[in-house]
Every structure is written in structure tokens, then in C-alpha cells.
Amino acid sequence: MTNHRSVKLTDSLYCYIWQGMGNNCNTCVFSDVLERDRPHIIVDPGHVANEMDEDCLGSLEEAMAGDEIKIEDTGLIINTHCHPDHCEANDLVIEKSGARVTMSKEEDEFRTTIGKVMFSMFGMKPPGFTPAYFLKEGIFSPGNNAFKLEIMLTPGHSPGSVCLYVPDKKVLITGDVIFFMSVGRTDFPGGDIQLLRNSIQRLSRLDTEYLVPGHNTEPNGVIRGRDQIKRNFQAIEMYF
Questions:
Q1: Checking phi first, is residue 227 left (phi over 0); if not, alpha (psi -120 to 50) or beta?
Q2: CA distance 215 to 175
Q3: Alpha-carbon torsion 71, 126, 177, 155, what sign?
Q4: Backbone phi, then psi, for 58, in 5-degree steps?
Q5: Would you give the distance in Å from CA 15 to the centre of its chain?
Q6: pLDDT tens, per residue, the chain with 240 residues
Q7: Cβ proximity of 188 and 95 under 8 Å
Q8: 147-153: long-range contacts at Cβ-Cβ below 8 A with a sequence spacing of 24 or more?
Q9: Number of independent structural domains in the chain
Q10: CB of 213 within 8 A of CB of 174?
Q11: How far apart are CA 195 and CA 220, in angstroms?
Q12: Domain containing 61 — which CATH number?
């Protein structure tokens, strides 16, 4: 039985909310937005298996199959950042699909230097993938011209974290920058509390109807509605 709960937010965006006992991130999938025979984008595939030996990637694959999305049809992996619970599964997804990987240049520089400490801290071997290209601030259109993401560089939790904003649907995917009534920790290597505060202030100015955090700090996984999201930002800016 899958430990991911599927939430369909738009015609092409599926959120897979992690509900297992151990640590793993939420994953987003943009389906049928790329051209040719591998049309899907996975954002943060997560762990292969976590500290409780839960089959995280197998669970994701099963949940995606329930929505008739094959992981083998993935053409692109976007990593919001390169902590193990967000990118450990990259190599196996690439092996299954031949997908390319992208992240910010700042995050890749961190990943290949002191970011390796993150994996050794948890007794893991760093993934061997190499990004095909780097994400930059601004509009990102990897497939047909109808599909557009706005890339925002949002350091603080890690040096090169990015958030993804879908302008026409008002969806914000925040990775580990912001959660429900909480924020990503900054005591890992590369964390910076002041940069995180600056990033959160930028995000709070967006017109957002759906906020998808990288981890659950409340039961529903997705924060819905402008008013609820505004209150969430206000509480975070007050306490953090």
C-alpha cells in the first residue's frame, strides 16, 4: 500500500503527499507538459528508502501509477534543493526513464562541495547525477509554450534553494523554505536564517491560491486559499 496521498491541484499538477512514519518529502508531478515520449516533470522525487526502511520511491511509483502516470515517462527532474530526502532517488528515476535533472547553479555548487556532508551525516552515498542545465530566476518553459513556471531563487534552508510558482494557476511549490506554521531548518551546512527570512518575505508577496510545502506540518498537506496562506505567512514572519 502506498504511503503517498495523491492530490490533483490542476489538470496537469499532481501532488504526492508523504504520509509514512519516517522522513521523506512531498513530490509534485507535472504530467504531459513536455514534448515527445517522456512528457512528465517530477519535482523532488525524495528518498529511495528512509531511516525506517520504508520504500519511498516504490510508494511514489505506485501512487503515480494510480493516476495513470508512469515514472518511466519522466523527462525532467527538478530539485528544489539537494538534501537527501529530496534528491536521493534521482539516480533510480534516471535509470528507469533517462530523465534529465536541473537545479540552480548555486545548489549544484553546494551539492558537489560541503553538501556531501549531508549524505555522510546520514550514512548515505551522494547520488551520481549531473544536472543537464541550471535553473535561473524568471520564467521557465521546458516544454510547449503553454506551460510556464516562474523560478525564484530562495536561499536560506540551503544556499541554492528554489521555489516554483505557476502563475496561471497561482500555485507555489516551496520545497523546504516554508511549511504550515513553520520554516525549513537552517542548522544544516549551508543554512542561513537571515537569507531564509528574506526569501520568505519575497514569497509572501505572490498571489497564491495553493501552497505546496516540501513536508507536512498539518494534516492536509496543501495550504489552500489566499486568506489561509496570508495568515500562514503572517504567523511565520512574526515568530521566525
A1: alpha
A2: 8
A3: negative
A4: -60, -40
A5: 10
A6: 799 999 999 999 999 999 999 999 999 999 999 988 899 999 999 999 999 999 999 999 999 999 999 999 999 999 999 999 999 999 999 999 999 999 999 999 999 998 888 788 778 888 899 999 999 999 999 876 678 999 999 999 999 999 999 999 999 999 999 999 999 999 988 999 999 999 999 999 999 999 999 998 776 789 999 999 999 999 999 988
A7: no
A8: 147/12, 147/30, 147/33, 151/104, 152/199, 152/202, 152/203, 153/104, 153/106
A9: 1
A10: yes
A11: 28
A12: 3.60.15.10
User: Model-level pTM?
Assistant: 0.96
- Cβ atoms 85, 25 nearer than 8 A: yes
The C-alpha cell at 150 is 516562474
Q: Residue 110 belongs to what domain range?
A: 4-239
Neighbouring CB atoms inside 10 A of 218's CB total 13
Cα-only R_g, the chain: 16
Give the residue from 189, 203, 190 showing the smallest Cα distance to 240. 203
